[in-house]
Amino acid sequence: DTGIITDTGIITDTGIITDTGIITDTGIITDTATADNSCRYTCRTSCVSDGGWEMLGNCAVPGTVCCYGWSEDTDPVAAECNGGFDILDGGYVCAGPLHGYAWTSPGEIAGASIEPEDFDDVTSAATRLCVAGNTVGDESWGSVGVLGINAAQIPGAVDRNFDSWSGADSYDGLYVDVSININTPFTLQLQIQTSVGNEYCTTVKDGANTVPFDDLTKCWESGNRSYEDDGRPPIESVMLLVPGHNEDDIYYDFCLNGLSVYKGSVVDTDSDSSTTPDTAQETCDGGFDILAGGYVCAGEIHGYAWTTPGAEDGSEIEPEDFADISTSDSRLCVSGNTAASYDSIGGLGVNANQPLGSTNNAEWTGADAWSGLRVDVTKNGAFTMWALIYTDSGEYCTEISDGVNSIDWDEFYTECWGSDGDPYDGEDPIERILLLVPGDEAGEIDYNFCLNELLPE
C-alpha cells in the first residue's frame, strides 16, 4: 500500500474531436512578401517542404523567396517567446518548446456550450486562459468541453502551417497548472493528439501536475498502452478536456495557468525572461512543507503521503488518505489500532521522489550526500514506533521516540524485529519512508501520532 493512485478515472469513450482550433482568420497579415517585397520571416533561394516552410512570395533580393515556417537553423518563434509560459496577442501560447494558438471546442453534440468561443480578443497582458461551459448527457458519452493548444504553429499561421512537435524524446513529460473554479465536481483530462492520429490522456487535478509521458495512455482503447510505449510520436496539440456523461449534463469552469515540458526534476513553469529551467517543485522551499492533496516537501525528498493499516483483519487507520489536506496544514496526523498480531501494523508513509501531480514514484538517489534523517513526531500515547526506509535491496528500520529524532544512516538495520541485521550504508536509492506502529499478539494497540517534520541531514 504505497499511496500511488491506480484508479485514474480515464474516460474511454468520449467521442472524437474534429474541431482542431486551427486559426484561419486572426487579422494578422501572413502574406508579407507580395506588397513591397518585404519578408517578415526569412528569404531563401527555395522553401524546403520537409523543413516546414511555405513560400509567401518573392523577396527584394532577386532569386530569393519569402519562406514562412521554421526549421533547425531558423525559428521565428524565438524572438517572441521567452522559453517559459507566456500568452501573446490573439491567444498565441508559448509553452517552452511548444507554441501555437489556443482554441476551444464544445464538441459536436447539440446542447453543449463553451465560453469563450475562441481567444481572438486575448492580449499579451493575459497570464492565463479560462473557459466555462457544459457538456450534455448523451448515450454515446460523446459530449466534451475542450481548451486546446496547437503544439507547433508560428505566430500568424493559418491551417497550412499547422504542424506537429517532434521533440518529446528530449523530455520526460508535461507540466500543467490548472485552477478549478467551481465546487461542482467534474473530471478534467490532459490529452495529447499525435500526428499518427492517436490520442493519449490522463486525469489531472486542481493545481500543478507533473505528468510523465508514460502516464499518458490511449484514451479510446483498453490495455493502457502509453505514449511512451508507442515511441512518442510527434504531438499536434495539447488539450484540457472535460468528458461528458451518458445521462447528466456536466458544468465546468477552469483556467490554464501554466504549461511546459520537463526533463528529470526540472521544468520552466514561469513567464520570466530566463530560459533556465526552474525546479519542478517550485512551491517547495527546501525545507519541510505540505501542499494540497498531501504532497510533502522534505528537502530533497518529495512525494505524496499515504496511510496503511496493513493486511491484517481488525487493523484500522484514519484518515485513509490525505486527499483533503490543504496547504494550510503544517503536519500530518493519523490514529487507529493494530490487531492482536505481530503482522499487524499502522503506518504513515511518504514517497521519496514523486513529481507533483504524478502517480509515478521514483527513487531518491541523493542519500549518499547526507548522513541520515531528521524525523520529528508527536506521539499521543504509549506505543512503539519505527522509522523504515525502503530500497531496492530491502527495508531498513530503527525505533524512534516522541520528539526530534536525528538518525544516522547506519542506525537503520535490516532486522526490524531483532538486534541483528545489516546497517544501511546510504548508497542504495530510497523509494519511500514509513513511520510504523507494529502490532503485538498480546492484544490490540491504539495509536495516535503526527509527523511534524522530515528532512535529510
Structure description:
The chain is mainly β and 457 residues long. The protein is 0% helix and 40% strand. The chain has no helices and 30 strands. The chain has strands at 42-44, 54-58, 65-68, 85-88, 92-95, 98-105, 113-115, 129-135, 144-150, 173-180, 188-194, 199-204, 207-212, 217-218, 235-243, 250-263, 266-267, 278-279, 288-291, 295-298, 301-308, 316-318, 332-338, 345-351, 372-379, 385-391, 394-400, 403-408, 430-438, 445-456. The strands form 5 sheets. Strands 4-5-6-9-15-11-12-14 form an 8-stranded antiparallel beta sheet, with no helix packed on it. Strands 7, 8, 10, 13, 16, 17 and 18 form a 7-stranded antiparallel beta sheet that branches. The radius of gyration is 26 Å and the shape is elongated. The model is unreliable at 1-38, 70-76 and 265-282 (pLDDT under 50).
| Rg over CA atoms | 26 Å
Within the largest sheet, what's the order of strands?
4-5-6-9-15-11-12-14
How many helices does DSSP assign?
0
Q: List the uncertain runs.
A: 1-38, 70-76, 265-282
Residue-averaged pLDDT:
79
% residues in beta strands: 35-45%
Shape: elongated
Please provide the ordered H/E string of secondary-structure elements: EEEEEEEEEEEEEEEEEEEEEEEEEEEEEE
Distance between the termini: 27 Å
Q: Helix amount, in percent?
A: under 10%
Number of strands: 30
- Largest sheet report: 8 strands, antiparallel
Look at the helices and sheets and give the structural class: mainly beta
